[in-house]
Amino acid sequence: MTAGKQSANVFAGVDSFYAATGRPWSSSAALQGEATCEVAVVGGGFAGLWTARRLAQAGRSVVLIEGGAVGRAASGRNGGFVSAGFACDIDTVAERLGKDHAKSLYLLSAQGREAVRSFARTRPDHGIDMVNGRLKVLRYDSQGALKKRATRLARAYGQDMFYWPREKVREHLATDTYYEALEDPTGFHLHPLNLARALAADCVAKGARVHENTPVTGVRRAGSGWRVEASGGGVTAKHVVLACNVAAPGEGAVVSGRLARALLPVATYVVVTERLGERLGEAIRWKGSIADTRRAGDYYRVVDGDRLLWGGRITTRIEEPADLAALMRADIARIYPQLAGAEVAYVWSGLMGYARHKMPIIGPLAKGLWACTAFGGHGQNTAAMGGEAVADAITGADDRVRLFEPFKPVWAGGPFGRVATQLEYWRLQLLDWQEERQARRSLAASLEGRAKSRVE
Ligand SMILES: Cc1cc2nc3c(=O)[nH]c(=O)nc-3n(C[C@H](O)[C@H](O)[C@H](O)COP(=O)(O)OP(=O)(O)OC[C@H]3O[C@@H](n4cnc5c(N)ncnc54)[C@H](O)[C@@H]3O)c2cc1C
């Protein structure tokens, strides 16, 4: 366990829509001096919060240590979409591990989604603002393949998906870009920062100690347990859970070199527009969340009545582009030309931690040392599921973490990994573009054929 360079920047606040509309949270004091507990959790994002909450619920003594504010990183600034599944497509998991193993994992991911739903439902006063329904839109005519996928997801994983033909998509989304869609009635969206704060408040209510503004500089063995070194003090614990995700290179202390080497930071960007009035409702009539099926596609939803939250542009380039707001406005206008010129009120970026296998790393790294990380771009449900699974493994309530044994922390390739991943993203984007072009051509050919036969 190494102590890395600490910069103030990584723990700085973010000027996001969520930060601006977040419910007040009485932040917890930084750690001062020494503490002893059964479990120390490092990281106050969803992974750490769900772990600490479950442990506290089971009556264990827990100290959660967060370098900045709870939810300051990916968890409090994400798109807010919650659905079953993982960053890695479940069919890829099935190819590698077989259908039964993949199904067990998928069901766990769905349990994570339900854990979020039931927590949010029982906290109506925290501004979590849950809105049901999720659409996956396709930018080309799949010629029946999308319908088949819906049937297969239902049969193989028990996941209900409703197929939407183009006319129905157009009734809800006034754009020529999309051809078909799958509606996931079990998906929903919410205010992620308020969720993180509500989770933190619940941890405290259940007896956990939460210390913010306490960067951890290292974790080392101490007798039969572990010692967490932090600014202002330290924690001695029987178990330590590492739930730190990724930070930009040179920013933030590297708590575990092994995990840091296994995680690749991937950036994604989000904007929220100024109020757009009626024209937003005319363009987007669907109140749930929307994402296209591209490999690095757009994801968006209407928030606060008449603002558009729009995310996208997944890249291994982790420095924020200077003209980010303009780039995102152009992305919006490409899909909805009627929204061209929409002013951007908030713009921010966030980092997702991906393992090479694109699955979470959940389970023991050594006796008493646990990983709960690498949730990639699909962390709302999986971090809830992972945190609870690690907590249950520590208390001995359950050993479902073993299902994640095949997903070890393997070296992500360092700078070569970033280059290779970026090249892979570009290759996949090219494939998307080719698929869409091909589909448009065959559609144009069939329309031409139909027009000709009408004339003849
Ligand atoms: C812009 C964006 C959009 C996204 N959209 C979605 C979405 O719509 N749906 C979805 O399911 N997922 C989405 N994701 C992914 C999801 O947000 C993440 O997978 C999830 O939040 C990861 O949670 P985490 O707790 O592992 O990490 P984080 O939320 O990053 O938390 C890690 C915490 O550890 C702390 N930490 C790190 N190092 C130290 C240290 N040395 N000492 C003390 N504390 C430390 C950090 O300060 C941080 O608060 C998105 C991610 C981003 C960035």
What does the model show?
With 456 residues, the protein is α/β, with parallel strands linked by helices. It folds into 2 domains: 1-130 and 190-263 and 356-412, 3-Layer(bba) Sandwich (FAD/NAD(P)-binding domain); 131-186 and 264-354 and 417-456, D-Amino Acid Oxidase, Chain A, domain 2, CATH 3.30.9.10. The protein has helices at 17-21, 46-57, 90-97, 99-121, 145-157, 166-172, 192-205, 257-262, 278-283, 324-335, 379-395, 414-455; strands at 33-42, 62-65, 81-82, 131-138, 162-164, 180-189, 209-211, 216-222, 225-230, 233-242, 264-273, 289-292, 299-303, 307-315, 344-354, 361-366, 369-373. A hairpin with a 6-residue loop joins β12 (289-292) and β13. α3 (90-97) runs antiparallel to α4. The chain is globular. The model is unreliable at 1-12 (pLDDT under 50). Residues 11, 42-48, 65-68, 72-75, 77-81, 215-216, 243-245, 247, 252-253, 255, 268, 270, 311, 350-352, 373, 375-380, 383 line the site of flavin-adenine dinucleotide. Flavin-adenine dinucleotide (FAD) binds next to α2, β11, β15 and α11.
Structure keywords:
25% strand; globular; alpha/beta; binds flavin-adenine dinucleotide; FAD/NAD(P)-binding domain; nine-stranded mixed beta sheet; 456 residues
